[in-house]
What does this fold into?
Amino acid sequence: MISIIGAGPAGSYLAYLLAKKGKEVALIEEHEKIGSPVQCTGIVTSSIEKFVKLPNDVIANRCSKVIVISKNSRITANTDEVVMWRNKFDEFLANMAIDAGAKILTNHQFIGFNGKHSIKVKNRDNDETKEIIADYVVGADGPSSQVAKAAGLEPIKKFYIGMQAKVKLKTDIEAFETYFSNSDFPQFFGWVVPESEDTVRLGLGSSSNAKEHFYRFLEKRTDSKEILCWESGIFPLYDPNKTIQKDNVYLVGDAAAQVKATTGGGIIPSLKAAEILCGCIVNKKDYNKEFKKRKAGRELLLHLKIRNMLNKFSDNDYDYLLGLMKQERVKKTLKKYDRDQPMPLVLSLLLKEPRFLKFSKFLF
Ligand SMILES: Cc1cc2nc3c(=O)[nH]c(=O)nc-3n(C[C@H](O)[C@H](O)[C@H](O)COP(=O)(O)OP(=O)(O)OC[C@H]3O[C@@H](n4cnc5c(N)ncnc54)[C@H](O)[C@@H]3O)c2cc1C
It folds into this structure.
């Protein structure tokens, strides 16, 4: 029996993959309703379709344009992005797992281990605890992973705060906006993502004073101060040296900090990681080594290096970067390779525009 804690994208997709391989899987989720509460913008590149075919009711909107804004510059580039209803996406993946044969236990919280091959879960209705036999235990329980803690794995060292709210705002429904300035969005960026004709998901990531920056951004971008709902959370920073397997305990998704450090996007990386972990469990491979060696691990390392570089940018550097990105040949490359294919993207950008190398000084 494999017990997977957390029915977010990482846990449900892994449960689906393992059940499809004929494994006995129990998926344990502390919330009554899968996918709630939402703490996510739900925007992904069309690369998502390499993993799952999204049903129409999961898709809130599609954006064919991205507007990138720095202090004194802006560009519009073509793109192909899906804005999802994140709660429906999580439900869809959990249903895929159930259809493949996984058992699901909602409203049950993992509270610890009971020896090496058994876990304790608590029914949140009546506080009753029960034991579940588990040959393997997977923590897919998000950035504050209880599984990691109970297994004695070190917690994630660095986070960004992600503050996001749904607000009324009429924008071009086909375009999402990203804002770059290390003074307004320290070490991260801001975004406005339209989910319907008159509603957007407006937010930012920040390494400090997120609340202050959020309200300043809200004031600048909208007249309406009415928050329809909050969808905030934290972004763990990828750490290639993090231990993600200890004996029969594994971590995946945000619990393993498998998130793109450039954007905080963790949905597609968590699906890629689930595929690697499934292979490691089935073929009894060392997941710590395997993940770093595989393309998905190398991609996250590249995102981390780019993040470390961006963190040293001044507002003038962002203006200069956007100036280079305005060129048609660069825009074409940006459309050809999305951010889920960072290796060919970076290489092609350097070939098309060697002046990007100016920024390599920030790598060291
Ligand atoms: C503000 C914000 C915006 C974001 N926007 C995007 C975006 O646009 N695109 C993108 O790709 N990524 C985005 N992300 C990141 C993305 O949300 C995460 O990377 C993704 O949710 C990771 O999936 P996961 O399955 O690893 O973890 P989660 O989605 O966090 O799922 C973990 C699950 O475990 C359950 N759980 C936790 N503890 C226990 C326990 N003890 N027992 C049982 N169950 C438990 C939780 O209830 C939850 O269902 C955003 C994050 C934030 C904070």
Residues 43-83+158-236 form a domain with the D-Amino Acid Oxidase; Chain A, domain 2 fold (CATH 3.30.9.10).
